Amino acid sequence: MTRKSGYALLAALASVVAVVCAAILVSVGGTHIDDASTAPQPRSTAAAQADAGAWVGTWATAPAAAEPNTPHGYPDVSIRNVVHTSVGGTAARVQLSNLFGTAPLVLTHTTLAVADATGGPDALPGTLAALSFGGRTTVTVPVGESVLSDPVRLRVPAAADLLITTFSPYASGAVTYHPHARQTSYLAQGDHTADPDGAAFTEQSPYWRYVTAVDVWTDQAKGAVVALGDSITDGFTSTVGANHRWPDYLAQRLDGSPQGPHMGVLNEGISGNRVLLDPTPSLAGDGPSALHRANRDALSRPGARTLIVELGINDIIMSPHQTDADAIVAGLQEITREAHAHGIRVVGGTLTPFEGERGYQPQFEIVRQQVNSAIRSGRVFDAVVDFDRALRDPVRPTRLFPAYDSGDHLHPNDAGYLAMADAVDPATLLGDAPASV
Question: Which residue numbers delimit the SGNH hydrolase-type esterase domain (predicted)?
Fold first, then answer.
């Protein structure tokens, strides 16, 4: 055999190996899945290395409602969602939702890329990858359900923006969305899913549409922390595009620093959300009650080990007002029991001050104090993070500390969100979930 023919044979063998590896990678996804944690996992060339890794959520959001005034969806429009990772990995997969849709959602092209450093819709060169679903680029998402993409090999950095771009040429019914993203995403006319540059994406949007989660394959993270909450967890008054919600600040603390375990942080807050009641049609964007959505939005997230609950204020201050503290406490205890059934530890936050908020009434403060007393007693959660103590004015503890007040006397500003993250003791995030509380 000549040297030239030997090289040719080696090249051919390498090509075969590459094709086989690619086939293994694309064959492991599925198009129709209710529990993302049960999805198959990609295999690396070294089986031992793959066995040491796991799927862990790096970003997530809760689908809140059907976007108003979208009876036909966005036909012939590319939607480029911008999301921010918490932990990195060597492969990724994306969940898309048609939970509040009114017709099957047919997507013909979907891509994933790492955003460049400009903070806009441009992809970092060489990172844009087409997503498939069961080996096909076109996927149909049934009404009320979600799909999980096949894994793609992509070096996903921690604390980085990703671009998830979807395209449908068809009218597809109402759009499942998250209204208070605090992040700018983009739209373009026509199919620009494969465009690494963002020149065509001239329309800005404050929403996340269809995309609800990104998981990464990692052998570094020790699982994920999931924050289940209302507008305070959603980061309602945080700086847009700055990733200054309190779960973002917590993710920075847990990103391989000595301050805590290396864990993904997933924000499942919905502005207006309550523990007990589903919203009225006029407040549909407030999302289903935490009792109804905890399993779907939080407990089924891949790698979830710890749940942080920040809920209860809206039950008190929104009509119809819940003035029975025991009812709120019972709802929080039910969330804890459900988490324990999934083997997930629960850290519960005390309810933060809101005197001065436009709907404040003195009797509401009594209910808040009663709920907080139960939380601090240890009979509701496995551990407590005292958000009330972190944010209250020491001179007038029924109010937010002025330096932490966004101005509405209910929601913190960026400094307040940082104080909330700093109040979380990393030592409480790991540990077994007890059989009962």
Answer: 227-417
Q: Which amino acid is at 206?
A: P
Tell me how crowded residue 166 is: count the other CB atoms within 10 A of its CB.
Answer: 24
- The DSSP 8-state label assigned to residue 123 in this structure reads B
* Chain mean pLDDT for the chain: 89
Alpha-carbon radius of gyration of the chain: 22
Q: pLDDT digits over 270-287, tens only?
A: 999 999 999 887 677 899
Q: How far separated are the first and last CA of the chain, in Å rounded?
A: 73
pLDDT of residue 42: 41
Q: What is the pLDDT of residue 44?
A: 33
Kindly tell me if the per-residue pLDDT of 134 is higher than 50.
yes
Confidence at residue 22, expressed as pLDDT on a 0 to 100 scale: 37
Closest by alpha carbon to 100, among 52, 65, 62? 65
pTM (predicted TM-score):
0.88
Q: How, if at all, do strands 208-209 and 176-178 pair?
A: antiparallel
- Please check whether residue 30 is in contact with residue 40, taking contact to mean a CB–CB distance below 8 angstroms: yes
Given pLDDT bands bounded at 50, 70 and 90, which one contains residue 60?
A: very high
Residue 176 Cα distances to 46, 99, 300, angstroms: 39, 6, 19
* C-alpha to C-alpha distance for 91 and 77, rounded to whole angstroms: 27
221-428: CATH, from 3.40.50.1110, 3.40.47.10, 1.10.10.10, 3.40.50.300 = 3.40.50.1110
Q: Which amino acid is at 74?
A: Y
Domain boundaries, the chain: 62-213, 221-428
